[in-house]
Amino acid sequence: MMRVKPAMFLTLLLVQMSLSFDCFLSFTLKNCSMTFSDTVTVMCLNGHLQKIPDDVPLNCEVLDVSSNQITEIKRPDVNRFTQLTVLRFTRNLLLRIEDEAFVKLQKLKTLDLSHNKISNLTQSMFVGLSQLVSLNLFSNRISQIAPNVFQPLSSLTRVILNENLITNLTDTATLFTLPNIKIIFLNTNRFTSINSDHLPFNSSNVTTLSLLSKSLREFILKRDIFPNLSSLNLKAGKFFDWRVNSDAYLNRLTHLSLVKVNLSSLAPSSTALSLYRI
Fold first, then answer.
1. pTM for the predicted model, two decimal places
2. Where does the secretion signal sit in this chain (predicted)?
3. Which label site among 89, 133, 153, 181 has the fewest CB atoms less than 10 Å from its CB?
């Protein structure tokens, strides 16, 4: 039986410890904690931070600065983190995002800006985010949307714009024309109409559309602009006008959820639907 010399044993032990250390690393930065397993993750939560700390490593892939007091995002703030795939700013005090603030985040897949005070989506806000898949703008104060602000988001499949101050659905028209868009949530906004005559696109790939809003007064389709729609959620006020000129326009619809909608306004349809009225 071969005997291992103490020096060799110590070397093997150090190698094993080094491998274990590389597989999972956790330590605390000045205002954040960092873990390294499959990805380099930095969490800077509930720290009363007004900006991203300077000691956050540039190779981090997931950065979460939620529940702080950050009021704006400038170009130098996040563009230095070129390896990011997930970025979360939820529950801050964000009022402004500088144009091209994310231009160097070409690997970013998920961007969460929910629960802030953003009111204006400017023309070049999302430039560079060609790989972004999920965008969350839930519970802001968005009322102004530049015409082509969403155009750079060619990989986007899911967007949440619930609980904002959008008054005209046409302002979001670019979203519907994105090549990979599947899911759009626009609940609790201020628009009153969904009318194909007012929407400047011929067809959308969206499959799930949620428009729960007590201000909604009409859903009118005179053109087949949603040929792939399989799930539609609507909420309306007391008076609601439903007009779909042909059953063929919604022939892929398998789920229709109607909240506070007068079902007598719906014409019988041959399409198999699951109807829910609350």
1. 0.85
2. 1-20
3. 133
Domains (ranges, CATH) in the chain?
A: 66-277 (3.80.10.10)
Kindly give the confidence (pLDDT) of every residue in the chain, 278 residues in length, as a single tens digit, with 9 standing for 90 and above.
555 455 554 444 443 444 333 333 445 567 899 988 889 999 999 989 999 999 899 999 999 999 999 999 999 999 999 999 999 999 999 999 999 999 999 999 999 999 999 999 999 999 999 999 999 999 999 999 999 999 999 999 999 999 999 999 999 999 999 999 999 999 999 999 999 999 999 999 999 999 998 889 999 999 999 999 999 999 877 778 889 999 899 999 999 888 766 655 555 443 434 443 33
- In sequence order, the 6+-apart residues with CB closer than 8 A to the CB of 195 are 218, 220
Contact 249, 273 (CB under 8 A): no
Q: What's the sign of the alpha-carbon dihedral 3, 7, 10, 14?
A: negative
